[in-house]
Amino acid sequence: MDNAKYYNLDQFDKASKIDAHIHINTADPAFLEQASLDNFILLSINTDVPGYPTLQEQQNIIINHRKRYPAGLRHVTTFETETRNQDQWHERAIKHLDESFSQGAVGVKVWKNIGMDIRDEQGDFIKIDNPLFEPIFEYLQQSNITVCGHIGEPKNCWLPLEEMTVAGDKLYFQEHPEFHMYLHPHFPAYNQLILSRDRLLERFPDLKFVGAHLGSMEWSVHEVAKRLDKYDNLAVDLAARICHLQYQSVSDWQSVYDFFIRYQDRIIYGTDLEFDGSQKPDDFREEAHNTWIADWKYFVSDGLLSTPGENYEFNGLRLPKEVIDKIYFRNALKWYPGLVF
Ligand SMILES: [Zn+2]
């Protein structure tokens, strides 16, 4: 065993790490306390989700945590689309983004409501490549500000529950029939959403774009690879989709391993852990720690592993240390240029 080339399981808390896709929606410091114990810096992704605190509140939560944990937390801001038909929406959106950047935001989130929820006056869905957003992307491209884009959903979302590949998706779409596209055939198809995102990448070739959740191409590392080959401005985060890589590792471990080696500069670790204070702080801390440890095991060890709720087993990837350092730390700094430590 070459210790210089690989991490051990118990080096977890020695390695510098960034969880570049989480959501902190509470003043409770439990998430930051656990992150600090486990040697993680957090990137909280402010998102225009129904049920989340308002965008202003989400941002204020982060700013307040940063007073106590100045080196432990950054955030990605976003803009609202609700008043898009009112005068000077673009100007207001850009002004709001600028204010966020001056308060430490390092990127801009766009969410799946673009493409799957908001509609124009004819009732057609407004997708991410709609001219409505061009002045904003133009501005971000010029300013070298990264977009974190959650466009579309896992492909499972368009399948009946019993055909979905991973337990987490079955549970999520069972609980959220409103987002389960198999039940909503009049909504845009999976491919339409992926294509709308691809057209945006083409139109703004210098816009840094982090495709959240493996760019919604979680079902095939080959599909992600095709886009990474085609669009130099694209990277992907792993948030809430590592289970899909494990699923592919069952039948095709080699392709998953090769994917990490080949695209080691463009894959960013993230979990999508969310803490809004509704869970007991200690329970949340345990959940966060266990999630981080389970992922670490998958990436650094080569044993046979399993994951709760799934009946399959897969081998760990045992990625070289250099690759681990990139996906867990250096790539986030590179792809979110405002993220400096
Ligand atoms: Zn998220």
Explain what this protein looks like in three dimensions:
There is one protein chain. The protein has 341 residues and is α/β, with parallel strands linked by helices. It has a single domain (9-335), classed as TIM Barrel (Alpha-Beta Barrel), CATH 3.20.20. The chain is built from twelve helices and eleven strands. The chain has helices at residues 30-37, 55-68, 89-102, 113-116, 134-143, 167-175, 190-203, 212-215, 221-230, 242-262, 281-300, 321-335; strands at residues 17-24, 40-45, 73-77, 105-110, 146-149, 209-211, 234-237, 267-268, 274-275, 304-306, 313-315. The site of zinc ion (ZN) has 5 residues, from strand 1.
SSE pattern, N- to C-terminal? EHEHEHEHHEHHEHHEHEEHEEH
Major sheet, described briefly? 9 strands, parallel
Low-confidence stretches: none
What portion of residues belong to β-strands?
A: 5-15%
Average predicted confidence as pLDDT:
96
Number of domains: 1
Distance between the termini: 32 Å
Topology, number of strands: 11
Proportion of residues in helical segments:
40-55%
CATH homologous superfamily placement? Metal-dependent hydrolases
What's the architecture in CATH terms?
Alpha-Beta Barrel
What characteristic shape results from the CA principal axes?
A: globular
| CATH class type | Alpha Beta
Number of helices: 12
CA-based gyration radius? 19 Å
Structural class: alpha/beta
Side by side, the strands of the main sheet go 8-7-6-5-4-3-2-1-9
**In the CATH scheme, what's the topology name?**
TIM Barrel
What bound compounds does this protein have? zinc ion
